[in-house]
Amino acid sequence: MIADANLPVIFAGLMALSVIVYAILDGYDLGVGILLPLNNDQQADQMVASIGPFWDANETWLVLAVGLLLIAFPSAHNVILKALYIPSAIMLVGLILRGVAFDFRAKVAQVNKHRWNQIFKLGSCIASASQGYMLGSFVMGFEDSFMAYSFAALSALGVTCAYALIGSTWLILKTSDDLQLRAIKWAKLTGKISFVGILAVCIMNPLINQFVFERWTTPPFAYFMAIVPFVCFTLLFIGNLVLKQLPLKDDSGCWLPFLITVVVFIFCFCGLAFSFYPYVVPGELTIWDAASAPESLRFILYGALIVIPCILAYTVFSYRVFWGKVEDLRYY
Amino acid sequence: MADVFLLSRLQFATNISFHILFPSITIALGWFLFYFKVRFNISGHPVWMRIYRFWVKVFALSFALGVVSGITMSFQFGTNWPGYMETVGNIAGPLLGYEVLTAFFLEATFLGVMLFGIRRVPSWLHTVATLLVAVGTTISAFWIIALNSWMQTPAGFEMRDGVAHALDWWAIIFNPSFPFRLSHVLLASGLTASFLIAGISAFRILRGDNKKAPRLALKTAVFVAALLMPLQIFVGDLHGLNTLEHQPQKVAAMEGIWDTQKGVPLLLFAVPDEKNRTNHFEIAIPNITSIILTHDPDGEVQGLNDFIGEHPPVAPVFYGFRIMVGIGMLMLVIAWFTSFKLIRNKPLSKGVLYSLMGMSFSGWIATLAGWYVTEIGRQPYLVSGLLKTSEAVTDIAPENVMFTFILYLTVYVGLLIAYLHTLFLMARRAVEIEEIQPEERLQQKHFPKTLNITAGELS
């Protein structure tokens, strides 16, 4: 039997898991949308085909993350979504436009296809930027100040760029020839911007936030916090070196940039998560303040423990089915 | 500037009305697809694959619209109705959570295999993927209807300091109105999908598509509708009796009964006047409502005047109910008449085809009307007897709610137009696709090679 006091910790962990899985998975397909070229229909088709079988399941991780927030920490859900009312609505419209454009573009005449491509790209940019904006406002404790808005705006840019980075490395993995070369270019550029972005957050976050400052400078968390930027910068640097070598013969190593980016994502996320733990609303609500009744958490937990391994298993199955370069998806 | 309460209600109503259109198609269409695929596996006849290929596109399109509008709703619980989760979050949360865990991932993951995996996995595995998508959409309906039914007829909980706490999950899920509501909704989806398939197929035939695929699809759909409609009437009747037991004020509004009385007549038409608490222009058949509701011509039925301040607005419930029943009757007549013709191998006249085409979206109208009856019928409560809708609303600035309301409304109207436009575009184009690929028929045994399509086309 799990003690009542541990339930919120477990749910915070599950929520963190679904947020990071979401950021990686929907991150790459949003990134592909952000990068969608409007001047080359054939490449656009390939790029969309590379995410076709996955985007819907990827987005479900967002539903799970928001769902877990709603289920496990309802009062935090209310506070957060009230504070982020407008940006979350804008994100939803972005996700709606993108989700439907994906489907409509394949079913309409060529004239309209271009318009749906534009909508797909626009929706992806809106969704990414508003997620970044919301992350920024969260970090700033939903403050109502010029400083907070500027930080949120910067964060919007940063997240959009990070998604474009992981999207381009996904394309390096899934494509070849011209499109792959293009993706390598995109990855080099977005990698450098991400580098600057992470640096900016590392400097700004402890400066503007007393709690974070203490967390970053007081052991034991301080040790971990020191590792995070170090690992991220080293990996981005190595990633850049790898990109300069690509593409290699037999396309070996095409998976390396994607893997590196995933690890950077995980480290950045852990850095952020541990900066605020155990607060679910920075400076206001801890996970224990906000948690639902134990009997409800327990009811969902037992189900989750059975179902989540199944979800992971069939997710792996689906990635195995669509393994390999995207060209194989075309039936001519 | 209108108030937050009204705007939030309008926004939620818009959202849920838009959302419900698509699950009401996909739940049953998933099972239709499974049936088409199995028929193909058994017979090896490419016509079943052609039917599958056409309708799987419609499924994908409807599914995408359902997903994106569904995500919006899960956000609105927190943004517009914070009092809802604060009061009943301990109950609603786990039910919604189970929907995500057991249904969303299943359908979303296997949708990818179903749409794009046809050449990458063996045919049987593709059939299993189709089955799992159908199962996923149905499980999704199970959880969401469990929560909705619990809001109508709450059970299995206790209130502590104004917050609902779960006592018995079995009683919460299988609450008194759940079995009736779930079967009513699943049958409604079956009818919605049937009439959509029959209507679009009739459209294709009327446009000169004389291939086997639309005719066979039409036949299948009409037979299914003819079987489901009487079942739906039966279940609807049981559902009504259950509502009378647990929510008599809703039934009183549906029937337009103001005073508690014996030998209640059935109002075919009337104009309810809530101000003067009476009806105008009544057209009534004596004693029928008493017979339907109490199975006794002189049975007593409670009237709205017993529930002053606690009953729903009468007019929308009253009219909504009549629209739903009216369309149901029309469905029954058309489905049976067409089936009769089909069984006797008579060709379908243009008139029949046009009426099927006209009924393409009748399921949507009936579902919406029925949904309004049950949801508006619960007012002024959000959770019957526990939480009034007005107590759950947010205190966000009305300008913000106005902004998002207009935003969603614009997007939804645009999408609905695009959806209908694309649906008919696909139906028109299906003719051309079949005509330019006669060689397909020669290769019917080598199924994968006959699929002359791109990944993009199937999305």
Written overview of the protein:
The complex is a heterodimer of chains A (332) and B (459). Chain A has 332 residues and is mostly helical. Helices cover 80% and strands 2% of the residues of chain A. Chain A has one domain: Formate dehydrogenase/DMSO reductase fold, CATH 1.20.1630. The C terminus of chain A is likely disordered. Chain B has 459 residues and is mainly α. In chain B, the strands form 4 sheets. In chain B, strands 1-2 form a two-stranded antiparallel ribbon. Chain B has a two-stranded antiparallel ribbon with strand order 3-6. In chain B, β1 and β2 form a beta hairpin. In chain B, α1 runs parallel beside α15. The longest helix of chain B has 38 residues. Chain B starts with a helix and ends with a helix. Chains A and B meet through α2, α3, α4, α5 and α13 of A and α3, α4, β2, α15 and α16 of B. Chain B: Its main location: membrane.
Query: What's the CATH architecture of chain A?
Result: Up-down Bundle
Number of individual domains of chain B? 1
Give the class of chain A from helix and strand content and strand pairing: mainly alpha
The value of Rg of chain A in angstroms is 20 Å
Query: Which class do the helix and strand fractions of chain B yield?
Result: mainly alpha
Q: What portion of the residues of chain B fall into strands of 2 or more residues?
A: 5-15%
- Could you give the order of the helices and strands of chain A? HHHHHHHHHHHEEHH
Name the overall outline of chain A.
globular
Distance between the termini of chain B: 43 Å
- How many β-strand stretches of chain A? 2
